[in-house]
Design goal:
By secondary structure, the protein is mostly helical. The protein is built from 7 helices and no strands.
Length: 166
């Protein structure tokens, strides 16, 4: 075993519990917390960076914190995506007359969407049946940007329908 590997093993033994506890506090997930700590050490082993004893603890805890924040950020994005997909799955049954009235008001609202990219996102997704990823590729933007435009468009449509149908 090389001197570097011995140092890393010593760091692992000294700081594992503290790193794991920090990850648990932030993530509330045992397996994910262990994975985060494992990933930090795996990255250290793969890199040629040397850690100094006096700054090692701070570096390791900061690495764990940053990875946990990335996981949390990813969870929030996933939750937003799931909410948007649930909007697509709404299958409420309404009477035919009300359906025609709502459809007409909705079509008028789509035409009025501003900025035009909001209208384009709605049309590509709902009319043409493209997935959010396909819409993003077609428009040359990120999926997150597509979600933002869709959310903005849905808010505008909601307001338009409230004015028209009330």
């Amino acid at each position: 075993m090389t001197t570097r590997n011995k140092k890393l093993e010593t760091l692992f033994r000294q700081h594992y519990r503290q790193m794991y506890r920090l990850a648990m506090v932030l993530l509330h997930d045992d397996a994910e917390s262990k994975d985060i700590v494992h990933d930090v050490f795996a990255q250290l082993i793969a890199s040629s960076a040397e850690l100094h004893e006096e700054t090692a603890a701070a570096f390791l805890l900061t690495s764990v914190r940053n990875r946990c924040l990335n996981v949390i950020r990813g969870r929030k994005i996933q939750e937003r995506i799931q909410r948007l997909y649930l909007l697509d799955l709404d299958t409420t049954i309404i009477p035919p007359d009300l359906f025609r009235e709502e459809s007409k008001a909705l079509a008028e609202g789509v035409i009025l969407l501003a900025p035009p990219v909001c209208r384009e996102v709605v049309e590509l997704h709902f009319r043409d049946g493209l997935t959010f990823r396909e819409v993003a590729l077609r428009l040359g933007v990120s999926e997150t940007t597509v979600y933002k435009h869709l959310r903005h468009a849905l808010q505008q449509l909601h307001e338009h329908l409230k004015r028209k149908l009330v």
